[in-house]
Hints:
single chain, alpha+beta, Nuclear Transport Factor 2, Chain: A, eight-stranded mixed β-sheet, 14 strands, 30% helix, globular, disordered N terminus
Amino acid sequence: MRCLLAASLALGLALPAAAAARKAKVPAPLTPAPVVAAERAFAADGLALGIKQSFLKHMADDAVVFQPDPVNAREAVSAQSDKPGPKLEWWPIWAGISASGDLGFTTGPYALDGTRRGHYFTIWKKQADGGWKWLYDGGPSSSAKDAPGPGGTPGYLMVATTSAGDEATAFASAQAADEALNTAAAEDLVPAYLAVLVCEARVQGSPAPPAQGCSSFREELAGRGRKVTFKPLGGSASSGGDLAWTYGDADWTIAGKAFRGHYVRVWQYRTDAWKLVFDQILPAPPRKKG
């Protein structure tokens, strides 16, 4: 009798627990959706408020733009005229976010007065109030002719599952990876890049469409010349230590002619090393002599 009573009590306790377990909400997997939403809100404000006011509204105080060299974005944009410019439209087609959910990026086509002109790239950082502000915005005139339109669903970079440590430690090691690439690229650029790029990466900067996938990287990179001298200037890492961005100067020579510009990269920590998931070169006018 006591055995039956004990069994009944045990069953009675187990059923509510099992029911509770079935009702428990499973957290939704982390995706770059918040970053995509921030980019789309930025783009919508570009049409509603105009270029100047929308850029000021959505940028962080320490945001950077190239004009043609790196400058504080708020100071640069604030100095621009309030006169309406051409109709600027853009939309995200690929995005990524850190595992800590506080650093991300998007990229996609942009158009002026309805004509596609290239591909933008934006780095986003989550703010203390939960909103998002951009840290960097810019992009080359790489062909966007055949890119998806604004109505499509953006592709997502997989979220990292490992970390390089806390924010400071991670950024220091990401800078070391960045400098190692720079050193190798000064000797032979293509193999230097291929050693650290992952097949999901995007590489852009030439007039061709952004290179997507390992089979397309070599041709895009070869257009930069055999050797490039890079000089790092800045960047930051996520608080979780799994995603970082870097930028700096670039100088190269093709057929005896000197060129210069700037690079922007995104690094993701995978297993036990930083891997390159995005890279772009932005050409700049020759430096003034004297």
